[in-house]
Amino acid sequence: MRKLTWIGVVCLVATCAARTGPSLSQFRMTPAELRSIRSGDAPNPKFPGVTIKVLFGDPAKEGFYSILFFAPPHMTLQAHSHRDNRVATVVSGQWSVGYGKQYDEGGLKLLPPGSVYSEPAGVDHFARTGDEQAIVHVCGYGPTDTQFFDPKNDPTLPGKKSD
What we know:
With about 160 residues, the chain is α+β, with helices and mostly antiparallel strands. Helix content is about 15%, strand content about 35%. The strands form two sheets. It has a six-stranded antiparallel sheet.
């Protein structure tokens, strides 16, 4: 099952890359190799403690993108949405996701490594990590953004404290 998931992800990246223009460099990474990256290219200001590693494209620009999302242990992501449709695969760690306009512990579903889920455009969702770092592979067609349902949860707004 895990092998089929990775074959699907690679096929999706390769197919979409061929349609969007930029060339895709060759890479092969096992889940263990992905875990060894430990952190991404840049911190994510919307989620303090989270880093992003861009694998392909540019999430801020029009076109297909593929990123790794590194979330630390015991992190709660409040309800938010994105303007683009996304599909995600849990690579490692404990990752629980729910849909709704506010964080709801009872609405979370634990998604073990190898699980996939969607983040439809404009649909609020929330997440939580467990006792270990979670790595999630996210693909979408940018530009993307992150909008919190409740603006008080956005650490990038004026007057908000960013850790």
